[in-house]
Specification:
Strand content: 15-25%
Strand order of the largest sheet: 7-6-5-8-9-15-12-11-10
C-alpha cells in the first residue's frame, strides 16, 4: 500500500491530488486499486501518513523467524510514489518573546450557548424568524441579546461598543465585532417579540421533557418596573410602585411559574392596573395556551376578591389563596383554641369552618359563598413571623408616641390653633396628626388621638392607647388565613402549596437584581415589551442552569456556578521564531480545580481548541 500523486486540470492550472493505492494479486497478475482519495497533502501531511503507517506496521510485526517467512496478508508500509518523504521541520522559538493576546471571556458565553442549545432555543429561532437580506441573521442577533442579559445586563449600546468584543461570541457564533451595532440589536428586538407566545409554549414543553416537571400547581404574582424618561405610551402609567419610585411611570408584570419556579409565561399590564383585576386575564390566557387540565391556582391576598373567587369557582378551577387581614378577626375564637397541628418547630396550621354568629359583619355575597361552596379555611401561625410583626408594630408604636409628644410640646409652646382658617400661619394640627398616622399605619389603630381647644383658644393634643386593639394585635401576630376549594388535601399540604409563592417572589428578585430589568430606558412600547421578553428568556436560562445544578447535586442556586465558570478565558498565544515568523494559536485557559469539579458535576467538557465559526 502506498501513496500516489495524481494531477488534474482546474481553471487552466495543474493541481496535484494524493490517493491511497493498494497492490493485490489476481490470476492474471498483480493489479493496483485506489483505496481512498486523500486530497491535497503538503510535506507535513505526507510525513504524518508515513509515521502513522510505521507505527501500525511495528505493532503487528511477526515475532518468530518462521512467522517472518510468511506474508503479512496486507501491505502496511506506505510509500510515496516517485516522491521523497518529507522530514519534520523544526523552528526555534524565542521564549522571552512569548506573549498572550486577545484575552476574552469564554466560560460564560460558552455555557450560555450550551443552555440555549439544550433548550433547542437556537433551532426554534432559526426556524421561526424568517431570513431576509440581513448580513447577520436575526436569530443569531437575538441570541446575543439573551446571552448578554444573562451574563452582563446592560444597554444595547454598551453590548455593541464594549461587551461583545470582549467575549468569545465572535468565534462561537461566527459574527465579527464590526457586524454588531446598537441599531442591529434594536431591530432584533422587533423581530423577536412577535414570537413570544409560541416561544413560551416551546420552552414549557422542552423544560418538561428535560426535567420531568409537573405543572399541577400554578403560582401567580404581580410586580412592577419603572421607566427613566417620558415613556409617552398607554401602558406607561403611574401606580403603586414596588420599587419605591412613585415619581416614575411604570408597567406591571404578571408572572406564572410552576412549583419549582420554572416560568410558564407572563403578561404586561398598564402601570396603574390593580392586581385584583389581572386574575381573569392571566387565567384565561394560560388556559388557552396550555389547557385547563387539573391545575391548582395559588395567589396571595392581593389577588383576592369575591368576584375572582366566583370566577374561579364557576370555571371548575381549584385554588389556594390568601385572605385580607381583616377576615382574620372572625376566627378569633379558633386562634384561642389549642387544637393546632404542628408542622415543624414554630409553625402550626389547622383547617377551620367558617364561623357562624348573629353579629357576622360579612357581606351577603361572602356568606352565601361560604355556605354553598366546599370551601375550607386554613389558619396558619408562625412563631418567627410573630416575632417579626411584633417588632415592626413596636417600632411604629414608638414612632407615633414620640411624634405625638413633640406635637403636644409644640402646641403648648406656640399656642397653635386647631383651625387653619383662623391661624393660617400654622398648619392644621389635625392634618399633621393624620399625615403622621398614615406614615405609621401598622400601629395607628392602637391610638385614640383627640385634638381639643384650650380656654385660651390654642390646640391641645391628647391621646390614649386602645387596649382591645393592642390585645388583638398581640394575639394575631404571626397568624394568617388561607381559603381553598381543594377538598382532598391535608392542612399541611395546603400550607406547603401556598408557601411555594416564594418561588414567584424569587423570580422577581432575580429579574430585578441579576438580570436588571429595571429601570427601562426604551421609549417605544414595542421595544419595552421586547426588553421584558429578553429578560424573561434570560431567566429561563437561569432556571435551566439551576435545574442542571440541582440534578448534579450542586443545589438549585446557579449564581455561584455561573460566576465561577465565567472566569474561564480564551486567548491567542503568540510564539515568535528565529526566522521572524510568529506562530499564533487560539486556546482556552485551563480550568482551576474548582472549575473542573463543577464541569464534571454538570457533565460538561470544554473544547480543546476554539473552532472559529463562519457565517
Amino acid at each position: 500500500m502506498f501513496i500516489r500523486q495524481y494531477f488534474k486540470q482546474e481553471n487552466g492550472r495543474r493541481t496535484a491530488y494524493w490517493a491511497l493505492v493498494e497492490s493485490y494479486r489476481t490470476a492474471t497478475g498483480p493489479r493496483q486499486r485506489v483505496v481512498a482519495w486523500l486530497g491535497k497533502l503538503d510535506e507535513a501531511g505526507r510525513l504524518g501518513v508515513q509515521q502513522a503507517a510505521d507505527v501500525a506496521r511495528k505493532s503487528i510485526e511477526p515475532r518468530s523467524a518462521t512467522e517472518q517467512m510468511q506474508p503479512l496478508g496486507r501491505q502496511l508500509r506506505f510509500e510515496f510514489d516517485d516522491v521523497v518523504a518529507a522530514e519534520p521541520r523544526w523552528v526555534e522559538v524565542n521564549a522571552g518573546g512569548v506573549r498572550v493576546e486577545n484575552l476574552r471571556q469564554f466560560g460564560g458565553p460558552w455555557l450560555a450557548l450550551h443552555l440555549i442549545r439544550t433548550l433547542q432555543l437556537d433551532t426554534f429561532l432559526d426556524k421561526e424568524i424568517p431570513e431576509g437580506r440581513e448580513h447577520v441573521p436575526w436569530d443569531v442577533t437575538s441570541m446575543i441579546l439573551i446571552i448578554a442579559r444573562l451574563l452582563e445586563p446592560s444597554s444595547e449600546l454598551f453590548i455593541a461598543e464594549q461587551w461583545f468584543a470582549k467575549t468569545a461570541l465572535p468565534d462561537l457564533l461566527g459574527v465579527t465585532e464590526a457586524s454588531v451595532d446598537d441599531n442591529r440589536l434594536y431591530r432584533a428586538l422587533d423581530h423577536l417579540l412577535p414570537h413570544k407566545e409560541a416561544l413560551e409554549v416551546h420552552l414549557k414543553k422542552r423544560l418538561g421533557e428535560l426535567f420531568k416537571l409537573e405543572y399541577d400547581l400554578l403560582l401567580y404574582d404581580v410586580t412592577s418596573t419603572y421607566f427613566e424618561g417620558a415613556a409617552a405610551f398607554p401602558l406607561a402609567q403611574r401606580g403603586y410602585s414596588r420599587d419605591q419610585r412613585s415619581d416614575c411611570k411604570q408597567v406591571c408584570i404578571g408572572l406564572v411559574v410552576s412549583r419549582c419556579g420554572i416560568p410558564l409565561g407572563y403578561e404586561v399590564f398598564a402601570g396603574n392596573t390593580a392586581d385584583v383585576t389581572t386574575v381573569e386575564d392571566i387565567v384565561e390566557t394560560m388556559e388557552r395556551r396550555y389547557g385547563k387540565s387539573n391545575r391548582i391556582w395559588v395567589m396571595d391576598r392581593g389577588m383576592v376578591s369575591e368576584e375572582n373567587i366566583e370566577f374561579l369557582r364557576e370555571g371548575g378551577r381549584r385554588y389556594i389563596v390568601g385572605t385580607p387581614k381583616s377576615m382574620l378577626k372572625k376566627f378569633e375564637q379558633e386562634i384561642l383554641k389549642e387544637d393546632w397541628h404542628s408542622i415543624r418547630d414554630g409553625l402550626e396550621v389547622k383547617i377551620v369552618p367558617w364561623p357562624k354568629s348573629d353579629d357576622d359583619e360579612t357581606s351577603t355575597e361572602t356568606t352565601t359563598a361560604a355556605d354553598t361552596s366546599p370551601e375550607r379555611f386554613i389558619l396558619c401561625r408562625s412563631r418567627e413571623r410573630s416575632k417579626k410583626e411584633e417588632g415592626i408594630t413596636q417600632r411604629f408604636e414608638k414612632k407615633i408616641e414620640d411624634a405625638l409628644a413633640r406635637m403636644k410640646a409644640r402646641c403648648e409652646k406656640q399656642a397653635r390653633d386647631p383651625m387653619p382658617c383662623l391661624a393660617p400661619r400654622f398648619a392644621a394640627v389635625e392634618r399633621e396628626i393624620g399625615k403622621m398616622l398614615g406614615k405609621n399605619s401598622r400601629a395607628a389603630r392602637l391610638f385614640d388621638v383627640k385634638v381639643t381647644k384650650t380656654d385660651k383658644g390654642s390646640a391641645r393634643v391628647e391621646w390614649s392607647k386602645i387596649e382591645a386593639a393592642r390585645d388583638w394585635t398581640t394575639l394575631s401576630a404571626g397568624c394568617y388565613l388561607l381559603r381553598t376549594n381543594v377538598a382532598d388535601w391535608s392542612d399541611e399540604e395546603l400550607w406547603k402549596a401556598y408557601i411555594q409563592l416564594t418561588e414567584a417572589e424569587a423570580a422577581f428578585r432575580i429579574h430585578k437584581s441579576d438580570l436588571s430589568i429595571r429601570p427601562i430606558w426604551h421609549q417605544k412600547e414595542e421595544r419595552v415589551l421586547a426588553h421584558i421578553f429578553v429578560c424573561f428568556l434570560a431567566y429561563v436560562l437561569w432556571k435551566t442552569l439551576g435545574q442542571l445544578c440541582d440534578k448534579a447535586g450542586l443545589g438549585s442556586e446557579p449564581r455561584r456556578v455561573l460566576s465561577e465558570l465565567a472566569e474561564i478565558r480564551s486567548m491567542d498565544v503568540v510564539l515568535p521564531t528565529r526566522s521572524g515568523v510568529e506562530i499564533r494559536t487560539r486556546c482556552i485557559s485551563k480550568p482551576t480545580d474548582h472549575q473542573q469539579i463543577l464541569l464534571e458535576k454538570l457533565r460538561l467538557k470544554l473544547p480543546s481548541k476554539i473552532i472559529q465559526k463562519k457565517m
